[in-house]
Design a protein that fits this description.
This protein is α/β, with parallel strands linked by helices. The chain has helices at about 1-20, 50-55, 70-80, 85, 105-110, 160-170, 265-275, 275-295, 300-335, 370, 400-405, 420-425, 490-510; strands at about 25-30, 60, 65, 115-120, 130-135, 145-150, 150-155, 180-185, 345-350, 375-380, 385-390, 395, 435-440, 450-455, 460-465, 470-475. The chain binds 2-deoxy-6-O-sulfo-2-(sulfoamino)-alpha-D-glucopyranose and calcium ion (CA).
Protein backbone atom coordinates (compact mmCIF):
# COMPACT_ATOMS: atom_id res chain seq x y z
CA UNK A 1 0.00 0.00 0.00
CA UNK A 2 2.76 2.34 1.09
CA UNK A 3 4.56 1.56 -2.15
CA UNK A 4 1.47 2.34 -4.26
CA UNK A 5 0.94 5.62 -2.41
CA UNK A 6 4.54 6.54 -2.96
CA UNK A 7 4.27 5.74 -6.66
CA UNK A 8 1.08 7.76 -6.96
CA UNK A 9 2.65 10.75 -5.22
CA UNK A 10 5.67 10.48 -7.50
CA UNK A 11 3.44 10.30 -10.57
CA UNK A 12 1.47 13.33 -9.44
CA UNK A 13 4.67 15.23 -8.78
CA UNK A 14 6.01 14.41 -12.23
CA UNK A 15 2.69 15.42 -13.80
CA UNK A 16 2.54 18.73 -11.98
CA UNK A 17 6.16 19.49 -12.91
CA UNK A 18 5.39 18.60 -16.48
CA UNK A 19 2.36 20.90 -16.32
CA UNK A 20 4.44 23.77 -15.04
CA UNK A 21 7.08 23.29 -17.62
CA UNK A 22 4.93 23.08 -20.71
CA UNK A 23 6.16 25.86 -22.97
CA UNK A 24 4.02 28.41 -24.77
CA UNK A 25 4.42 28.47 -28.54
CA UNK A 26 4.30 31.45 -30.86
CA UNK A 27 4.73 30.39 -34.44
CA UNK A 28 5.41 33.40 -36.67
CA UNK A 29 5.14 32.77 -40.37
CA UNK A 30 5.49 35.39 -43.06
CA UNK A 31 4.59 34.90 -46.69
CA UNK A 32 7.35 34.79 -49.33
CA UNK A 33 10.12 36.10 -47.07
CA UNK A 34 13.55 35.30 -48.52
CA UNK A 35 16.45 34.65 -46.13
CA UNK A 36 18.43 37.36 -47.89
CA UNK A 37 15.89 39.93 -46.66
CA UNK A 38 16.67 39.27 -42.98
CA UNK A 39 19.81 40.89 -41.63
CA UNK A 40 20.55 37.92 -39.36
CA UNK A 41 21.18 36.08 -42.66
CA UNK A 42 22.52 38.84 -44.88
CA UNK A 43 23.04 42.52 -44.18
CA UNK A 44 23.22 43.73 -47.77
CA UNK A 45 19.53 44.54 -48.31
CA UNK A 46 17.80 45.44 -45.07
CA UNK A 47 18.09 45.75 -41.28
CA UNK A 48 15.62 43.64 -39.31
CA UNK A 49 16.66 44.30 -35.70
CA UNK A 50 13.76 42.46 -34.09
CA UNK A 51 14.02 39.29 -36.15
CA UNK A 52 17.78 39.45 -35.54
CA UNK A 53 17.09 39.66 -31.84
CA UNK A 54 15.38 36.29 -32.03
CA UNK A 55 18.41 34.90 -33.86
CA UNK A 56 20.87 36.37 -31.35
CA UNK A 57 18.91 34.92 -28.48
CA UNK A 58 18.17 31.60 -30.14
CA UNK A 59 19.17 29.37 -33.04
CA UNK A 60 19.28 30.19 -36.75
CA UNK A 61 19.18 27.51 -39.43
CA UNK A 62 21.08 27.83 -42.69
CA UNK A 63 19.69 24.66 -44.29
CA UNK A 64 15.97 24.71 -43.60
CA UNK A 65 13.80 23.45 -46.45
CA UNK A 66 10.19 23.30 -47.55
CA UNK A 67 8.81 20.12 -49.08
CA UNK A 68 6.73 22.02 -51.68
CA UNK A 69 7.53 25.68 -52.25
CA UNK A 70 4.10 27.24 -52.40
CA UNK A 71 1.76 28.77 -49.88
CA UNK A 72 -1.21 26.58 -48.98
CA UNK A 73 0.66 23.27 -49.39
CA UNK A 74 3.47 24.52 -47.15
CA UNK A 75 0.94 25.45 -44.46
CA UNK A 76 -0.71 22.03 -44.67
CA UNK A 77 2.69 20.35 -44.24
CA UNK A 78 3.42 22.52 -41.23
CA UNK A 79 0.09 21.64 -39.58
CA UNK A 80 0.21 17.90 -40.24
CA UNK A 81 3.92 17.03 -40.36
CA UNK A 82 3.16 15.08 -43.55
CA UNK A 83 4.03 15.53 -47.22
CA UNK A 84 1.47 17.01 -49.63
CA UNK A 85 0.58 13.64 -51.20
CA UNK A 86 -0.41 12.38 -47.72
CA UNK A 87 -2.19 15.49 -46.36
CA UNK A 88 -3.97 16.00 -49.70
CA UNK A 89 -3.00 19.66 -50.23
CA UNK A 90 -0.79 19.47 -53.31
CA UNK A 91 -1.35 22.94 -54.68
CA UNK A 92 -3.02 26.26 -53.90
CA UNK A 93 -6.24 25.15 -55.59
CA UNK A 94 -6.88 22.21 -53.25
CA UNK A 95 -8.99 22.39 -50.11
CA UNK A 96 -7.48 21.29 -46.81
CA UNK A 97 -9.27 18.36 -45.20
CA UNK A 98 -9.76 19.81 -41.72
CA UNK A 99 -10.78 16.47 -40.23
CA UNK A 100 -7.18 15.20 -40.22
CA UNK A 101 -4.89 15.21 -37.22
CA UNK A 102 -2.86 18.40 -36.84
CA UNK A 103 -0.61 19.62 -34.08
CA UNK A 104 -3.04 22.41 -33.02
CA UNK A 105 -5.79 19.77 -32.57
CA UNK A 106 -3.48 17.65 -30.42
CA UNK A 107 -2.30 20.63 -28.38
CA UNK A 108 -5.87 21.79 -27.85
CA UNK A 109 -6.81 18.29 -26.65
CA UNK A 110 -3.86 18.44 -24.27
CA UNK A 111 -5.18 21.62 -22.66
CA UNK A 112 -3.39 24.30 -24.66
CA UNK A 113 -5.22 27.51 -25.59
CA UNK A 114 -4.83 27.70 -29.32
CA UNK A 115 -5.21 30.57 -31.78
CA UNK A 116 -4.77 31.00 -35.53
CA UNK A 117 -4.46 34.63 -36.58
CA UNK A 118 -3.63 35.98 -40.05
CA UNK A 119 -3.15 34.26 -43.39
CA UNK A 120 -4.65 30.78 -43.55
CA UNK A 121 -5.29 30.15 -47.27
CA UNK A 122 -6.47 26.56 -46.76
CA UNK A 123 -10.09 27.19 -47.90
CA UNK A 124 -11.71 24.97 -45.22
CA UNK A 125 -12.66 26.32 -41.79
CA UNK A 126 -9.78 26.22 -39.29
CA UNK A 127 -10.05 23.31 -36.85
CA UNK A 128 -8.21 22.92 -33.54
CA UNK A 129 -8.29 26.58 -32.50
CA UNK A 130 -10.09 28.22 -29.57
CA UNK A 131 -9.83 31.47 -31.51
CA UNK A 132 -9.38 31.95 -35.23
CA UNK A 133 -9.28 35.18 -37.18
CA UNK A 134 -8.14 34.52 -40.70
CA UNK A 135 -7.76 36.58 -43.84
CA UNK A 136 -10.02 35.87 -46.77
CA UNK A 137 -7.90 33.91 -49.27
CA UNK A 138 -4.64 35.72 -50.01
CA UNK A 139 -5.83 38.69 -47.95
CA UNK A 140 -5.51 42.41 -48.68
CA UNK A 141 -2.78 44.69 -47.40
CA UNK A 142 -5.24 47.52 -46.74
CA UNK A 143 -8.62 47.33 -45.00
CA UNK A 144 -8.60 43.51 -45.04
CA UNK A 145 -11.57 41.23 -44.59
CA UNK A 146 -11.27 38.58 -41.88
CA UNK A 147 -13.29 35.50 -41.01
CA UNK A 148 -13.41 35.62 -37.24
CA UNK A 149 -14.71 32.56 -35.44
CA UNK A 150 -17.47 32.34 -38.05
CA UNK A 151 -18.18 36.07 -38.52
CA UNK A 152 -17.03 38.28 -41.40
CA UNK A 153 -15.38 41.53 -40.34
CA UNK A 154 -13.55 44.24 -42.29
CA UNK A 155 -10.83 46.06 -40.38
CA UNK A 156 -9.67 49.45 -41.56
CA UNK A 157 -5.91 49.83 -41.53
CA UNK A 158 -2.75 47.94 -42.50
CA UNK A 159 -2.79 44.17 -42.39
CA UNK A 160 0.53 43.59 -40.59
CA UNK A 161 -0.46 45.94 -37.75
CA UNK A 162 -3.97 44.51 -37.54
CA UNK A 163 -2.79 40.90 -37.29
CA UNK A 164 -0.35 41.84 -34.53
CA UNK A 165 -3.05 43.75 -32.63
CA UNK A 166 -5.20 40.61 -32.74
CA UNK A 167 -2.35 38.44 -31.44
CA UNK A 168 -1.62 40.84 -28.59
CA UNK A 169 -5.32 40.98 -27.76
CA UNK A 170 -5.49 37.18 -27.61
CA UNK A 171 -2.46 37.06 -25.32
CA UNK A 172 -3.84 39.79 -23.10
CA UNK A 173 -7.13 37.95 -22.57
CA UNK A 174 -5.74 34.46 -22.28
CA UNK A 175 -6.29 32.12 -19.36
CA UNK A 176 -3.04 32.65 -17.49
CA UNK A 177 -3.15 29.19 -15.91
CA UNK A 178 -2.79 27.30 -19.17
CA UNK A 179 -0.11 27.31 -21.85
CA UNK A 180 -0.92 28.78 -25.25
CA UNK A 181 -0.04 28.15 -28.86
CA UNK A 182 -0.54 31.01 -31.32
CA UNK A 183 -0.10 30.75 -35.07
CA UNK A 184 0.75 34.35 -36.01
CA UNK A 185 0.78 34.38 -39.81
CA UNK A 186 1.45 37.49 -41.85
CA UNK A 187 0.37 38.27 -45.37
CA UNK A 188 3.48 40.37 -45.94
CA UNK A 189 5.69 40.42 -47.93
CA UNK A 190 3.54 38.69 -50.57
CA UNK A 191 2.82 40.20 -53.97
CA UNK A 192 1.70 42.98 -54.70
CA UNK A 193 4.00 44.47 -52.06
CA UNK A 194 1.98 47.30 -50.54
CA UNK A 195 3.99 48.94 -47.76
CA UNK A 196 2.42 50.55 -44.70
CA UNK A 197 1.71 54.26 -45.15
CA UNK A 198 4.57 55.14 -42.78
CA UNK A 199 7.06 53.14 -44.88
CA UNK A 200 6.09 54.13 -48.40
CA UNK A 201 9.13 55.38 -50.32
CA UNK A 202 11.60 54.69 -47.50
CA UNK A 203 14.05 52.93 -49.85
CA UNK A 204 13.78 55.50 -52.65
CA UNK A 205 17.46 56.48 -52.45
CA UNK A 206 18.85 52.97 -52.36
CA UNK A 207 20.41 51.41 -55.43
CA UNK A 208 20.16 47.64 -55.07
CA UNK A 209 22.86 45.57 -56.69
CA UNK A 210 21.73 43.05 -59.25
CA UNK A 211 22.28 39.46 -58.14
CA UNK A 212 25.08 37.64 -59.97
CA UNK A 213 22.59 35.46 -61.83
CA UNK A 214 20.18 38.24 -62.80
CA UNK A 215 20.92 37.78 -66.51
CA UNK A 216 20.83 33.98 -66.42
CA UNK A 217 20.43 32.73 -70.02
CA UNK A 218 19.05 29.37 -68.80
CA UNK A 219 21.61 27.45 -70.86
CA UNK A 220 21.48 23.67 -70.09
CA UNK A 221 18.03 24.31 -68.49
CA UNK A 222 16.00 25.68 -71.41
CA UNK A 223 12.88 23.58 -70.87
CA UNK A 224 12.76 24.05 -67.09
CA UNK A 225 14.29 27.24 -65.68
CA UNK A 226 13.98 28.74 -69.14
CA UNK A 227 10.27 27.99 -69.55
CA UNK A 228 8.76 29.77 -66.51
CA UNK A 229 6.86 33.06 -66.45
CA UNK A 230 8.24 34.77 -63.36
CA UNK A 231 10.87 37.11 -64.69
CA UNK A 232 11.32 40.58 -63.26
CA UNK A 233 11.37 41.85 -66.81
CA UNK A 234 7.72 40.77 -67.20
CA UNK A 235 6.44 42.27 -63.95
CA UNK A 236 3.29 44.25 -64.50
CA UNK A 237 3.66 48.01 -64.70
CA UNK A 238 0.30 48.65 -63.15
CA UNK A 239 -0.11 45.90 -60.62
CA UNK A 240 3.48 45.33 -59.51
CA UNK A 241 5.01 48.75 -60.18
CA UNK A 242 1.96 50.87 -59.20
CA UNK A 243 1.94 52.79 -62.45
CA UNK A 244 -1.46 54.16 -63.46
CA UNK A 245 -1.98 52.91 -67.00
CA UNK A 246 -3.06 55.47 -69.59
CA UNK A 247 -6.36 55.03 -71.41
CA UNK A 248 -5.96 52.17 -73.86
CA UNK A 249 -2.62 51.08 -72.39
CA UNK A 250 -2.55 47.32 -71.69
CA UNK A 251 -0.37 44.95 -69.72
CA UNK A 252 1.24 42.12 -71.70
CA UNK A 253 -0.05 38.56 -71.15
CA UNK A 254 3.06 37.63 -69.28
CA UNK A 255 4.36 38.01 -65.74
CA UNK A 256 1.72 35.81 -64.16
CA UNK A 257 1.75 32.60 -66.15
CA UNK A 258 1.13 32.40 -69.88
CA UNK A 259 -0.75 29.15 -69.37
CA UNK A 260 -3.43 30.90 -67.31
CA UNK A 261 -3.66 34.01 -69.48
CA UNK A 262 -4.29 36.37 -66.59
CA UNK A 263 -5.11 39.91 -67.67
CA UNK A 264 -3.56 42.22 -65.09
CA UNK A 265 -4.66 45.40 -66.84
CA UNK A 266 -7.21 46.49 -64.24
CA UNK A 267 -5.69 44.91 -61.13
CA UNK A 268 -3.89 47.93 -59.70
CA UNK A 269 -7.04 49.97 -60.26
CA UNK A 270 -8.95 47.54 -58.04
CA UNK A 271 -6.32 47.57 -55.33
CA UNK A 272 -6.06 51.36 -55.44
CA UNK A 273 -9.83 51.83 -55.33
CA UNK A 274 -10.02 49.84 -52.09
CA UNK A 275 -7.93 52.46 -50.24
CA UNK A 276 -9.64 55.09 -48.08
CA UNK A 277 -9.27 58.72 -49.24
CA UNK A 278 -6.57 59.39 -46.64
CA UNK A 279 -4.66 56.21 -47.57
CA UNK A 280 -4.91 57.23 -51.23
CA UNK A 281 -3.47 60.63 -50.43
CA UNK A 282 -0.41 59.02 -48.82
CA UNK A 283 -0.01 56.64 -51.74
CA UNK A 284 -0.31 59.47 -54.25
CA UNK A 285 2.24 61.59 -52.47
CA UNK A 286 4.90 59.02 -53.31
CA UNK A 287 3.69 56.96 -56.25
CA UNK A 288 2.71 60.02 -58.32
CA UNK A 289 6.43 60.79 -58.36
CA UNK A 290 7.20 57.22 -59.38
CA UNK A 291 4.66 57.53 -62.20
CA UNK A 292 6.21 60.77 -63.41
CA UNK A 293 9.67 59.29 -63.17
CA UNK A 294 8.61 56.28 -65.21
CA UNK A 295 6.86 58.33 -67.90
CA UNK A 296 9.73 60.77 -68.25
CA UNK A 297 12.43 58.11 -68.65
CA UNK A 298 10.87 56.19 -71.57
CA UNK A 299 12.80 53.08 -70.61
CA UNK A 300 13.02 49.87 -72.58
CA UNK A 301 15.04 46.62 -72.65
CA UNK A 302 17.47 45.98 -69.80
CA UNK A 303 17.09 49.51 -68.51
CA UNK A 304 13.40 48.96 -67.97
CA UNK A 305 14.04 45.56 -66.36
CA UNK A 306 16.57 47.07 -63.97
CA UNK A 307 14.22 49.92 -63.12
CA UNK A 308 11.55 47.33 -62.33
CA UNK A 309 14.01 45.46 -60.13
CA UNK A 310 14.69 48.56 -58.04
CA UNK A 311 10.98 49.26 -57.71
CA UNK A 312 10.29 45.63 -56.76
CA UNK A 313 12.85 45.59 -53.96
CA UNK A 314 11.82 49.02 -52.68
CA UNK A 315 8.27 47.89 -51.98
CA UNK A 316 9.09 44.30 -50.99
CA UNK A 317 11.60 45.42 -48.37
CA UNK A 318 9.34 48.19 -47.04
CA UNK A 319 6.70 45.52 -46.32
CA UNK A 320 9.27 43.63 -44.26
CA UNK A 321 10.05 46.71 -42.18
CA UNK A 322 6.46 46.63 -40.88
CA UNK A 323 6.78 42.92 -40.11
CA UNK A 324 9.97 43.53 -38.16
CA UNK A 325 8.48 46.44 -36.19
CA UNK A 326 5.48 44.35 -35.25
CA UNK A 327 7.63 41.47 -34.13
CA UNK A 328 9.35 44.01 -31.89
CA UNK A 329 5.95 44.82 -30.37
CA UNK A 330 5.34 41.14 -29.70
CA UNK A 331 8.77 40.56 -28.15
CA UNK A 332 8.31 43.60 -25.89
CA UNK A 333 4.98 42.19 -24.76
CA UNK A 334 6.56 38.83 -23.92
CA UNK A 335 9.22 40.63 -21.88
CA UNK A 336 6.71 42.80 -20.10
CA UNK A 337 4.58 39.78 -19.20
CA UNK A 338 7.65 37.75 -18.20
CA UNK A 339 6.70 35.15 -20.80
CA UNK A 340 9.90 35.19 -22.87
CA UNK A 341 11.77 32.45 -21.04
CA UNK A 342 9.16 29.74 -21.33
CA UNK A 343 7.86 30.60 -24.80
CA UNK A 344 9.11 28.96 -27.98
CA UNK A 345 9.12 31.65 -30.66
CA UNK A 346 9.56 30.44 -34.22
CA UNK A 347 10.24 32.79 -37.12
CA UNK A 348 9.83 31.33 -40.58
CA UNK A 349 8.18 31.88 -43.96
CA UNK A 350 5.91 29.61 -45.99
CA UNK A 351 8.78 29.31 -48.49
CA UNK A 352 11.75 31.20 -49.83
CA UNK A 353 11.58 33.72 -52.69
CA UNK A 354 13.61 34.99 -55.62
CA UNK A 355 14.89 38.52 -55.25
CA UNK A 356 16.16 38.76 -58.80
CA UNK A 357 18.26 35.56 -58.75
CA UNK A 358 18.01 33.93 -62.20
CA UNK A 359 16.13 37.12 -63.20
CA UNK A 360 13.07 36.07 -61.14
CA UNK A 361 10.53 36.89 -58.51
CA UNK A 362 8.15 34.20 -57.04
CA UNK A 363 9.16 30.70 -55.89
CA UNK A 364 8.03 27.10 -56.73
CA UNK A 365 11.37 25.74 -58.04
CA UNK A 366 13.61 23.39 -56.09
CA UNK A 367 16.55 25.74 -56.72
CA UNK A 368 17.97 27.00 -53.45
CA UNK A 369 16.46 30.50 -53.09
CA UNK A 370 12.88 29.23 -52.97
CA UNK A 371 13.59 25.76 -51.58
CA UNK A 372 15.08 27.22 -48.40
CA UNK A 373 12.96 29.05 -45.86
CA UNK A 374 14.30 31.30 -43.14
CA UNK A 375 14.14 29.58 -39.75
CA UNK A 376 14.96 31.05 -36.37
CA UNK A 377 13.83 29.60 -33.04
CA UNK A 378 14.15 31.16 -29.60
CA UNK A 379 13.40 29.27 -26.41
CA UNK A 380 15.66 30.62 -23.67
CA UNK A 381 14.88 27.77 -21.30
CA UNK A 382 16.36 25.14 -23.63
CA UNK A 383 18.21 26.79 -26.51
CA UNK A 384 21.57 28.48 -26.04
CA UNK A 385 21.74 31.99 -27.53
CA UNK A 386 23.48 32.78 -30.82
CA UNK A 387 23.58 29.25 -32.22
CA UNK A 388 23.74 28.57 -35.96
CA UNK A 389 22.88 25.13 -37.30
CA UNK A 390 23.63 23.66 -40.70
CA UNK A 391 21.47 20.59 -40.17
CA UNK A 392 18.90 19.74 -42.82
CA UNK A 393 15.60 20.61 -41.17
CA UNK A 394 12.25 20.83 -42.90
CA UNK A 395 8.78 22.32 -42.45
CA UNK A 396 7.78 18.69 -41.89
CA UNK A 397 9.53 18.92 -38.51
CA UNK A 398 7.47 21.69 -36.86
CA UNK A 399 4.52 19.53 -35.77
CA UNK A 400 6.61 16.81 -34.08
CA UNK A 401 8.86 19.40 -32.44
CA UNK A 402 5.97 21.28 -30.85
CA UNK A 403 4.29 18.05 -29.72
CA UNK A 404 7.56 16.85 -28.24
CA UNK A 405 8.04 20.02 -26.19
CA UNK A 406 4.39 19.98 -25.09
CA UNK A 407 4.78 16.43 -23.83
CA UNK A 408 2.21 15.07 -26.29
CA UNK A 409 3.08 11.79 -27.97
CA UNK A 410 3.94 12.13 -31.64
CA UNK A 411 1.60 10.09 -33.89
CA UNK A 412 3.61 7.50 -35.79
CA UNK A 413 2.10 8.64 -39.11
CA UNK A 414 3.94 11.96 -38.84
CA UNK A 415 6.75 12.02 -41.40
CA UNK A 416 8.88 14.75 -39.85
CA UNK A 417 11.22 14.48 -36.86
CA UNK A 418 11.35 16.41 -33.62
CA UNK A 419 14.21 18.93 -33.85
CA UNK A 420 14.67 18.86 -30.09
CA UNK A 421 18.14 17.30 -30.03
CA UNK A 422 19.41 19.82 -32.58
CA UNK A 423 17.82 22.75 -30.78
CA UNK A 424 19.39 21.67 -27.51
CA UNK A 425 22.82 21.15 -29.03
CA UNK A 426 23.08 17.36 -28.79
CA UNK A 427 24.83 15.33 -31.48
CA UNK A 428 22.35 13.27 -33.45
CA UNK A 429 24.15 10.95 -35.81
CA UNK A 430 20.87 9.59 -37.15
CA UNK A 431 19.64 13.00 -38.37
CA UNK A 432 18.80 13.19 -42.10
CA UNK A 433 21.56 13.99 -44.60
CA UNK A 434 19.27 14.49 -47.57
CA UNK A 435 15.90 16.12 -48.26
CA UNK A 436 13.08 15.21 -50.61
CA UNK A 437 11.06 17.86 -52.47
CA UNK A 438 7.90 17.74 -54.60
CA UNK A 439 6.12 20.58 -56.43
CA UNK A 440 2.80 19.97 -58.24
CA UNK A 441 1.10 23.18 -59.39
CA UNK A 442 1.15 23.12 -63.21
CA UNK A 443 -0.30 24.49 -65.45
CA UNK A 444 -0.79 27.51 -63.21
CA UNK A 445 0.63 30.83 -62.11
CA UNK A 446 4.22 31.37 -63.30
CA UNK A 447 4.39 28.21 -65.44
CA UNK A 448 6.77 26.12 -63.36
CA UNK A 449 6.62 22.46 -64.37
CA UNK A 450 5.89 19.76 -61.80
CA UNK A 451 9.06 18.31 -60.32
CA UNK A 452 10.47 16.35 -57.45
CA UNK A 453 14.00 15.69 -56.33
CA UNK A 454 16.59 15.13 -53.67
CA UNK A 455 19.36 17.28 -52.23
CA UNK A 456 22.23 16.20 -50.07
CA UNK A 457 25.28 18.14 -48.88
CA UNK A 458 26.95 18.18 -52.28
CA UNK A 459 24.46 17.47 -55.03
CA UNK A 460 20.92 18.05 -56.14
CA UNK A 461 18.94 15.84 -58.49
CA UNK A 462 15.67 17.18 -59.92
CA UNK A 463 13.14 15.32 -62.04
CA UNK A 464 10.70 17.40 -64.08
CA UNK A 465 8.67 14.28 -64.67
CA UNK A 466 5.83 15.87 -66.68
CA UNK A 467 8.28 16.73 -69.47
CA UNK A 468 10.81 13.94 -68.87
CA UNK A 469 13.74 16.18 -67.91
CA UNK A 470 16.38 15.39 -65.27
CA UNK A 471 18.82 17.87 -63.78
CA UNK A 472 21.89 17.31 -61.63
CA UNK A 473 23.84 20.08 -59.89
CA UNK A 474 27.24 19.97 -58.29
CA UNK A 475 26.45 22.41 -55.47
CA UNK A 476 30.04 22.81 -54.29
CA UNK A 477 31.33 23.80 -57.73
CA UNK A 478 28.16 25.44 -58.94
CA UNK A 479 26.30 26.94 -55.95
CA UNK A 480 24.06 29.06 -58.20
CA UNK A 481 22.83 25.96 -60.05
CA UNK A 482 23.59 27.25 -63.52
CA UNK A 483 25.07 24.10 -65.02
CA UNK A 484 23.01 20.97 -65.35
CA UNK A 485 25.53 18.09 -65.41
CA UNK A 486 23.02 15.27 -65.65
CA UNK A 487 24.27 14.19 -69.08
CA UNK A 488 27.94 14.69 -68.21
CA UNK A 489 29.64 11.26 -68.10
CA UNK A 490 32.08 12.40 -65.39
CA UNK A 491 29.06 12.46 -63.11
CA UNK A 492 27.64 9.06 -63.99
CA UNK A 493 28.52 7.53 -60.61
CA UNK A 494 27.06 10.51 -58.74
CA UNK A 495 23.98 10.39 -60.94
CA UNK A 496 23.42 6.76 -59.95
CA UNK A 497 23.99 7.46 -56.27
CA UNK A 498 21.56 10.35 -56.31
CA UNK A 499 18.97 8.31 -58.16
CA UNK A 500 19.27 5.58 -55.54
CA UNK A 501 18.78 8.17 -52.79
CA UNK A 502 15.80 9.59 -54.69
CA UNK A 503 14.19 6.14 -54.95
CA UNK A 504 14.90 5.46 -51.29
CA UNK A 505 13.26 8.69 -50.11
CA UNK A 506 10.26 8.25 -52.39
CA UNK A 507 9.73 4.84 -50.87
CA UNK A 508 10.30 6.07 -47.31
CA UNK A 509 7.71 8.84 -47.73
CA UNK A 510 5.29 6.62 -49.68
CA UNK A 511 5.24 8.86 -52.76
CA UNK A 512 2.77 7.70 -55.39
CA UNK A 513 3.99 7.27 -58.95
C1 LIG B 1 -0.93 35.00 -56.36
C2 LIG B 1 0.16 35.83 -57.01
C3 LIG B 1 1.21 34.95 -57.65
C4 LIG B 1 1.69 33.94 -56.65
C5 LIG B 1 0.52 33.16 -56.11
C6 LIG B 1 0.87 32.13 -55.09
N1 LIG B 1 -0.39 36.70 -57.98
O1 LIG B 1 -1.68 34.34 -57.33
O2 LIG B 1 2.26 35.76 -58.11
O3 LIG B 1 2.62 33.07 -57.23
O4 LIG B 1 -0.37 34.07 -55.48
O5 LIG B 1 1.49 32.70 -53.97
S1 LIG B 1 -1.21 37.97 -57.48
O6 LIG B 1 -1.26 38.84 -58.63
O7 LIG B 1 -2.53 37.56 -57.07
O8 LIG B 1 -0.49 38.59 -56.38
S2 LIG B 1 1.38 31.95 -52.63
O9 LIG B 1 2.40 32.51 -51.72
O10 LIG B 1 0.05 32.15 -52.11
O11 LIG B 1 1.65 30.55 -52.92
CA1 LIG C 1 3.93 32.27 -50.04
Amino acid sequence: MKKILLLMTAALFILSCAGEKRPNIIYIMTDDHAERAISAYDTSLIRTPNIDRLANEGIRFTNSYVTNSICAPSRAVMLTGKYSHINGMKDNRDRFDGSQVTFPVLLQNAGYQTAMIGKWHLVSTPVGFDTWKVLQGQGSYYNPLFYENGDTVVHEGYVTDIITDMVLDFLEHRDKDRPFCVLYHHKAPHRSWMPAERHIGMFRDRKFELPETFYDDYGTRERTAGAQDMEVKNMYLGYDMKIHLLPGEKEPFSGGGRSINWDATNSWKHVYRALTPSQKAVFDSYYDQVNLDYRSRQLSGNELTEWKYQRYLEDYLACIVAVDENIGRLLDYLDKEKLAKNTIVVYTSDQGFYLGEHGWFDKRFMYEESFTMPLIIRYPKKIKPGKVSEEFVMNLDFAPTFLDYAGVSIPKEIQGESMRSILEGREDSSWRESVYYHYYEYPAWHDVHKHDGVRNREYKLIHFYGIGVWELYDLKKDPHELKNVYENENYSAIRNEMKAEYDKLRKQYAVED
